[in-house]
Design goal:
homotetramer; about 350 residues; alpha+beta; Chorismate synthase, AroC fold; five-stranded antiparallel β-sheet; 9 helices; globular
């Protein structure tokens, strides 16, 4: 359903072509300094870039309906509303009859019937991810009390892959300075080329977001089922277009020997660390004090301008479909802050559950 | 925590060196034909093979404590107990002081303190996965009413990769006939070589389990958060050693163009299908009627006999550790039926939630 | 927290003196005919009466933010927003220092600290019950498909008690025709006298709401813990001022013999019925096909104009407090439709869980 | 379903005539001193008395299957198994055809069909309450760390009512010294007379359990829905035979004026207290620091030896039924420790959720 979390709960609602979309964050302690500005700052990072994104602009203005008074949380659930601008939704009607490949149109129509609101993708719209960003802004503020910080970046777009490693502080600095949200200017340049080539071809391209969280205490996670990986992957797969999640060495671990994969322990500055981090900071579903690291695979944007093969559900025969409108040729740059937000929310929930956060 | 699921709930408990382990499956309808034999048959598929597995044998005898009378479910929660055989646990004490690399010892000790029961891995033991298999046996029986079937197989072990595609019926037949749970005799042979080489080196090796489910109705899944991918990945990451999960094209999608990745719709025999299945049978978090397909990456077994670098937590200094006992050089063959069981449980839960199962 | 329910989920948020209050109902099937008018009609039943209620009027205009398009549910979560009118909140500041007896001021300040928003009672305001009424309007529409109907009435106000029994159809007709929501004109008259006497004395008075639901199938309820009584009482006690809930003979059962209390079975018109209904329609936590009947005790309104003894939390000494403003001298008449709404929500959830509702 | 709680979770399973019954308590911190003796001591308080109880004796021996090693909790879920003794279940078959008045037979058969295990009441058996007592023993140990203590007593049995008030320490001392669990020897004597009279008449009698908890911090409870009253009443109504729950003045509040019901604040020994406790220690769903007080109404035992009117479900006609076996003529004395256990469990869960318990 539309609520996730245990000690912190996130509810999302609305559709991209109704009055607006909204998230409710329940479980946030009273007395935290959060303003509409705190949330807006994060939302702005999700906006499409002129250079490489869709030319359709949404203002995405955060309006606090509940839970924050005079810039402080009250302990009541926090509700953030983002009003939709007036949009012509008529063009979506055809998709009831001819579902778009790669979109949820067909299964959603089968599940909800004629009453399903598929304008703009309805409740399956990528627009819903703005709500995860808003919730993430609140969660980041909570985590800051523990000195836990989260940063993500575009690690690959199409064939442009960033193989370098980056310090955490570099990440934060770099990704805000290029529209691709890459970790270095050179990577950004290569990735931009991929995106523009896809756009020029009336096509789209996929990519990978890598996410890192530092400062986590040891022992976050609630076995047997509520592991760090399990809780993160559940929310990550709710982000439209995500097709894979891997932690640490991930799928590479499948080809490794144990002697190579096991991270040896060492003492550095009086702290227990591991010399490598193939585990991605997690053992037995629990944080082990090393940086949490994981990758998220995004498929290429489903909406492309090239003609596609589909079917006419009324006449039950093959047909061709051409999707108008303007779309992001690559969703990855805008997804970076969404992955950060989802991660921050899950970590705040798990830290609260484990008694690390009051 | 130790309970998962919504309309179906699975609770696991016990540790590998206490009296036993147990699972409770709540939400199973009354009147289903299930015997201890039904469950035992599945549990037997998880037993280590003489050829390629650990030489330590557990009987894993399923004992129904509740919910089944005279071979039929009663509607009450089903409890299955698996008694532990008497085991010498003394050797585990050293790991309180010198944690094993790749195991949960260190974070678990930090989380639970001195009272943590780390004998045999405690509640982090791979032995707990027998409970997922037991729950899976029940779920498979439920799904059979919908003609939904689940099959998994070892798709890769180390560098031995099975690139072929297999019909569903072949899968079921083949995997039961080789100890590796590979989909063809030739793949089994190549994988066996990898496992035996690792064992000979006192080492271990990872791999990939591929899972397929057919017969699912369109529209299974509960957006926004309870997507098919999200619900599956959550339970899959609770299986010890899982480091990655991808659906359909998965991480390959990151390098694809939209025109290549979008699965075109077609009408075949009066049914809506897609010509390719890069989506892995899921769009917008909902099943689309195509086979559900996903891969699960397993790291190499953490317990190896080669000497490893660790630390002495009491003296806070580096030390060497050698782990005795006999361990599976590769967990993948035994994990195949675990992945099947986890998948069946999640699908039964989602089918019940969606009103597809009574 | 602020979410309740399993297959149907209700989330409430907002405070009485912020921008507004809102409820989200998740789990409602697509294709149901519901308009803002459907909801408004129920909300209007909660409005204070000129004759016996507070002179402060709230418009309580329901605004659908999500989940209903063109008068039909879409399957997405339904969000209903009720905007607060501009209110002078300055008078509430004093209650931070001198908590009102019978209100949540003191424990809420201890729990949430200085950031707690106690204007108008904050999230403890009786105004939040409008959201239960709105959710109830949706639930009643769902239940109508099963021919399940819910009706409540004022059974007692102060010493005016209605000992008569009433047919279900009379209930619906009568309660809408008097401001007290009594089941007969004579009862209404006697209760009005109690209310006006309390008001004249600058005081308030309590009462009992009796609720009946008919048409329920046999076997609704999910043992062991999710009994009909348990699920109902949980939401009923969330209604401010509720102090007791009893089913069927309730507390009178404590004085009865088994031979008197057990309801004998009989066959009437080919249906199994019981000759009496001391069970209130529930056995073993399950509906038994007889009318569901229960009573809810409401304490007198906490806000009274007479001077009360309280303490100054800053100086930690006794002090006197006089509460201004205009308040309902009795909350019972307005609570009748709230009890109906809460009941309808729980029954819709349980009917959906039990497979009685699609 | 069969799991309840949020930060603490209790799962119950089994039936009275299968292998046994079991509870699982998840969320208990590691390092707590609990032995089988701790649990057995509480279970023994639930045993029937020779004088006034059933002559059927169950040993109710607690066996810890998981979560406690060497007398200390490990942080893993705690499982307690109580084996059933061999019982002749043949006599229950008739109730499939002729349901017992006041029992769950009829609705359970309609819900679960022929596969329902109604031997001994199946999962509706009063025997399941032993599991609440066991969970309560664990919860009481947790609460002891906060100096929170819970005590209940028989406040009324039939027409024998104990109108006196009792100090908390007296309660603990007195109730253990008489089989009725009354708060004074004289009350015990009067209640015993009621019970023996009912037994002599082949009948049964109901009663009221009053429960008190002291030492609770201010602010326990999680609005809007997870109020102290709501959480308590939900589990209390899962206890078979409970028909009503009221807090503080409860149903008496319905007849009171606000000036009489509102508890005035005062400062005593530098602490904020209220002069009266009509609120029963709860305001706005939160504890206010005063003793938590509530009453629970129990109906008379449904099994009586007198002949009763029932129906033959096969022939759909009226018939007479006589129930053999030996039953408690009054369930109240044995229910006292069950109410205590349920209360302790809820309070431990809420204290943990509120951050009062680590």
């Amino acid at each position: 359903m539309n609520t996730i979390g245990t000690s912190m709960r996130l509810t999302v609602l609305g559709t991209s072509h109704g009055p607006g979309i909204e998230c409710i964050v329940d479980g946030c302690p009273a007395g935290l300094d959060i303003t509409e500005g705190t949330i807006q700052q994060e939302l702005d990072l999700r906006k499409p870039s002129d250079e490489i994104g869709t030319s359709r602009k949404e203002e995405d203005r955060a309006e606090v309906l509940s839970g924050i008074v005079d810039g402080r949380t009250t302990g009541a659930p926090i509700a953030i509303f983002i009003r939709n601008r007036d949009v012509d939704s008529s063009k979506y009607e055809v998709f009831r009859r001819v579902p778009r490949p790669g979109h949820a149109d067909y299964p959603a129509l089968m599940k909800y019937g004629e009453s399903h609101d598929l304008r703009g993708g309805g409740q399956f719209s990528g627009r819903m991810t703005a709500l995860i960003v808003a919730a993430g802004a609140i969660a980041k503020t909570m985590l800051a009390k523990l000195n836990v910080r989260v940063a993500a970046y575009a690690q690959a777009i199409g064939s442009a892959v960033d193989e370098e490693s980056h310090s955490f502080d570099d990440l934060i600095a770099s990704t805000r300075q290029n529209p691709v949200r890459a970790a270095s200017p050179s990577a950004a340049e290569r990735m931009k080329v991929e995106i523009l080539a896809a756009r020029k071809a009336g096509d789209s391209v996929g990519g990978i977001v890598k996410c890192v969280a530092i400062g986590l205490p040891v022992g976050v996670g609630e076995p047997f089922f509520d592991t760090v990986e399990g809780e993160l992957s559940k929310i990550l797969f709710a982000i439209p277009a995500v097709k894979g999640v891997e932690f640490g060495a991930g799928f590479r671990a499948a080809r490794m020997r144990g002697s190579e994969h096991n991270d040896p322990y060492a003492i550095v500055d009086g702290r227990v660390v591991t010399e490598t981090n193939n585990a991605g900071g997690i053992l037995g579903g629990l944080t082990n004090g090393m940086p949490l690291e994981f990758d998220v695979a995004f498929k290429p944007t489903a909406s492309i301008s090239a003609e596609q093969r589909s079917v006419d559900l009324k006449e039950m025969k093959s047909t061709a479909l051409r999707i108008g409108g303007r779309h992001d040729p690559c969703i990855v740059p805008r997804a970076v802050v969404v992955v950060e937000g989802a991660t921050a929310f899950v970590l705040a929930d798990l830290c609260k559950r484990g008694g690390f956060l009051g």
